[in-house]
Each structure stands twice: as structure tokens, then as C-alpha cells.
């Protein structure tokens, strides 16, 4: 995802990851590795860590203060975000697009699912002064099967 964003002209890319989940830690490391491979650095202020409790707070009371605080501190030149999953990307997009027509640049795999939820999808090949690019992982299909011990 980082390579795709860089190819589209983004060089200041932020990341949003879950700190109390192994998947979040692995995706963060992958993000840093990909940024380094592109010769880019990520200032600490462009990384947002959130917890399961903060997600629960959102579900119970629509509290996204963790995300608002992050958006207040990111570097002003940030034009793209890598989100750990689609839900966080959606929360971020909702916060960034208040009062605006919702458009989102996505990879093809996300495009159809976002269109079904009312998002308009668009190519990221346009001016970055007024557009923020989002990229998210969606691997929920990996967690739908449950392993159990054989019964005797």
C-alpha cells in the first residue's frame, strides 16, 4: 500500500494501528519497513495508536477523541493514511469529510464494498491539496474460522 501511495505522489504518510493487538503491531512494523524501503521517514506524531477500549468507547458513545487528538497533531504536509482496518479507515474518513462530499481513493478490493455503503470511489491521480488518501487492510475473513480440539 505504501508503494502505491508513493507512486501517486504521497510522501508524508501517517499510520493508525491498534496497540493491544498483535495484528496491529505487525502491520505497524510492515508500514515502517515499507516507508524505509521508499526512503521515507515517519515522524512519531504521524502515528496513532488506539486500544480495544477506545473502540469500545466509540461503539458505546460515539467517542472518537483518540482520533481527534491524532488529527490535531499530525504534520501539516500529511496527505495519506494507512489504517489497520476498514473500520478505522471509515472512522477517519467520517471525521475528515464532515460537511464534504465523501470520496475515497482505494485499492480495487475495497472499492466495491465502499460503494455499497454509500461512498463514492475515485482515482487518487488528482490534486493532493484538497484530497486525503486512505488505505486500509481488510482481513476479517482470516478470523472467521475457529479451530477447536478434536472431540473423543
Describe the protein.
By secondary structure, this protein is an alpha/beta fold. The protein has one domain: Rossmann fold (3-Layer(aba) Sandwich). Helix content is 39%, strand content 14%. The protein is built from six helices and six strands. The strands form two sheets. A four-stranded parallel beta sheet has the order 2-1-3-6, with helices on both faces. A two-stranded parallel ribbon has the order 4-5. Strand 4, helix 6 and strand 5 form a beta-alpha-beta unit. The longest helix is centred in the first third of the chain and has 16 residues. It is globular, with a radius of gyration of 16 Å. The C terminus is likely disordered.
Produce the secondary structure layout.
Blueprint lengths: L1 H6 L5 E6 L3 H16 L9 E4 L1 H10 L3 H9 L6 E4 L2 H11 L6 E2 L3 H8 L4 E2 L11 E4 L16
Parallel strand pairs: 1-2, 1-3, 3-6, 4-5
CATH architecture: 3-Layer(aba) Sandwich
**Beta-sheet strand percentage?**
5-15%
- Major beta sheet, strand line-up: 2-1-3-6
**N-to-C order of helices and strands:** HEHEHHEHEHEE
Number of domains: 1
What does the overall shape look like? globular
Task: Find the CATH superfamily.
Answer: Response regulator
| Share of residues in helices | 25-40%
Number of contiguous helices: 6
CATH C-level: Alpha Beta
Termini distance? Answer: 46 Å
Low-confidence runs: 101-131, 140-152
Brief rundown of the structure:
With 152 residues, the protein is α/β, with parallel strands linked by helices. The chain contains six helices and six strands.
Properties at a glance:
152 residues; alpha/beta; Rossmann fold; 4-stranded parallel sheet; two-stranded parallel sheet; 6 strands; disordered C terminus
